[in-house]
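$ ./design --mode recover --in tokens.txt
reading tokens...
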């Protein structure tokens, strides 16, 4: 079962699971997701337009399907979504995840694989899984709470789970997210449409930009991992390489052959994270994960009209 499976990352995950021969049910309320994202597999999945917080529906579907693995991308997926909606975001991300975990524990789901976030680290210089963290915003706080919820369900109910702290994910199928989309996508759209690329500050803040297929690769490795690796485990997923926003603009201009217009403005955001860079030594060591895409390759993949190659992870 893929919750939020018509969304950006969820749709890519759904496609890969189908390619690998799994029977997949997608649950998405289409708040941000779009059915068009699932066009290539629409006849090979069961799609349910429903909110994952609907307990009666979800319980019935898990029981009917005999669900073994749940991939969870639903809920509020970025910090700006919490502006003025903090209580709703907490309800969706924390209460919803606790309810999901209880249903999975009660109905024999083998493992939950869920989206956490590198936002948890704030501006820590060493962004490694065992670092002591102080989440800088409501979004990051809910992700941190989800990780501890998963830990308690493992300790008390034996529910296997792995949380993946994503680092700045970009790729295809993101257009529907609009202003909630990754900076790579937003800057690329601005460049292609002749609009200004709006940069906060001097553009020297850095991000570990991670291509969406590397995220999917990591999560499917997590699904296949031995039980010992799924005792409420947490993994960073990134490239271990950071780019400044100025460097991002340079890469986009080089890959598209277009010359962009950059507009530098004062940063309007509080608790803004200046730098992110994943330490992926744990996921390399325990799951054998290695990112395949650097920023140039990822952007080139987005721009390519060729069909995606089938990848086996």
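writing sequence...
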């Amino acid at each position: 079962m893929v919750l939020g499976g018509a969304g950006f990352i969820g749709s890519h995950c759904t496609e890969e699971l189908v390619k690998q021969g799994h029977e997949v049910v997608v649950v998405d309320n289409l708040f941000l997701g779009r059915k068009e994202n699932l066009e290539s597999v629409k006849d090979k999945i069961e799609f349910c337009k429903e909110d994952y917080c609907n307990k009666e529906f979800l319980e019935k579907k898990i029981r009917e399907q005999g669900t073994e693995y749940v991939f969870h991308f639903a809920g509020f997926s970025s910090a700006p979504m919490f502006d003025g909606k903090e209580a709703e975001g907490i309800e969706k991300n924390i209460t919803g995840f606790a309810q999901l975990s209880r249903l999975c524990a009660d109905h024999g789901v083998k493992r939950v694989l869920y989206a956490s976030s590198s936002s948890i680290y704030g501006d820590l210089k060493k962004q490694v899984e065992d670092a002591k963290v102080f989440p800088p915003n409501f979004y990051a706080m809910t992700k941190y709470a989800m990780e501890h919820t998963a830990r308690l369900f493992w300790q008390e109910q034996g529910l296997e789970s792995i949380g993946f702290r994503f680092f700045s994910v970009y790729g295809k199928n993101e257009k529907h997210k609009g202003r909630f989309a990754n900076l790579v996508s937003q800057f690329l759209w601005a460049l292609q449409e002749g609009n200004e690329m709006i940069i906060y500050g001097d553009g020297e803040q850095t991000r570990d930009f991670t291509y969406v297929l590397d995220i999917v690769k990591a999560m499917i490795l997590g699904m296949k991992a031995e039980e010992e690796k799924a005792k409420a485990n947490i993994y960073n997923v990134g490239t271990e390489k950071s780019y400044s926003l100025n460097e991002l603009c340079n890469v986009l201009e080089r890959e598209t052959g277009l010359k962009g217009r950059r507009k530098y403005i004062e940063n309007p955001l509080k608790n803004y994270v200046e730098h992110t860079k994943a330490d992926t030594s744990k996921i390399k060591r325990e799951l054998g994960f290695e990112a395949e895409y650097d920023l140039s390759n990822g952007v080139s993949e987005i721009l390519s009209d060729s069909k995606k190659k089938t990848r086996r992870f």
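exit 0
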